[in-house]
Amino acid sequence: MATAEANKLKVLTEHLAPGAPLTSDDLRKLDISADLATHYVKAGWLTRLSRGVYAKPGDELSFRPSLLVLQRTYLDLYVGGKTALDWYGYRQYIAQRPILNLYSWSTIPRLPSWFTERFPASYHRKRLFHETSKHLLFVTPFEDRTNEPNVSEPERAVLEVLSEVGVRQQLQEARDLLESAYTLRADVLQKLLQQCTSVKTVRLCLQLGKELSLPWAEKLDASSLPKGSSKPWVSHRQHGKLVLK
């Protein structure tokens, strides 16, 4: 028995990658039960971050591996909005300590403190498109690489930012971000806009694209998009009124 446990501890040590947390599922795959994991915590061979999440004692967690563990816990959680645009090189302002924008189709009660205390993040429950949690439109591993977090592709991220205008997103910043996104793919944007549930987002995308003379804007077929009625969309905001015809 002692030899078997010693072998398991050796295997565990070999799998404790620097900066990467482990979950209960990871431990089960190593044939380490919950009781044995508790024993390892008491013995100082593991640190318990929260229920079902562990790390190497004294280890400083790395961002990417930690985010991947979070996305394995919440399967439809992904990086979106301004963070996704920043990752893809679309940016106007550089924050000293940027907030990670995480989105989910489902409801997540609260992001775990072991993650947010190390990596400041905000969570948005967003159902901006006709889709399902298992088939999110244009949410893919970053740059289509293995072992990378799921991220909104730039076209989706732009619409996520525009959807927040009038709520918690300043119009001028959204406009500046859109102005830098002149390389967006018109065909992808067309598909997303056709499935968009927000009339405001569709109208704002079309209006700003036209005002900024962005190359993809003239390629969109506006007649097939859900723009709502012929009446203007009006929002009274802190700094004035937003009118979208």
| Residue share in β-strands | 15-25%
Total count of strands:
10
Number of helices: 10
- How many domains, as an integer? 2
Mean pLDDT score, rounded?
Answer: 88
Strand order of the largest sheet: 1-3-2
Series of H and E elements: HEHHEEHEHEHEEEHHHHEE
Radius of gyration: 22 Å
Q: How would you sum up the global shape?
A: elongated
Beginning-to-end CA distance, first to last residue: 74 Å
Major beta sheet, specifics? Answer: 3 strands, antiparallel
Low-confidence stretches: none
**Structural class by helix and strand composition:** alpha+beta
What does this structure look like?
By secondary structure, the chain is an alpha+beta fold. It folds into 2 domains: 2-55; 63-244, no CATH class. Helix content is 38%, strand content 16%. A 3-stranded antiparallel sheet has the order 1-3-2. The chain has a 3-stranded mixed sheet with strand order 4-5-6. The protein has a two-stranded antiparallel ribbon with strand order 7-8. Strand 9 and strand 10 form a beta hairpin. Helix 5 runs antiparallel to helix 7 (154-163). The longest helix is centred in the N-terminal third of the chain and has 14 residues, at 2-15. The mean pLDDT is 88.
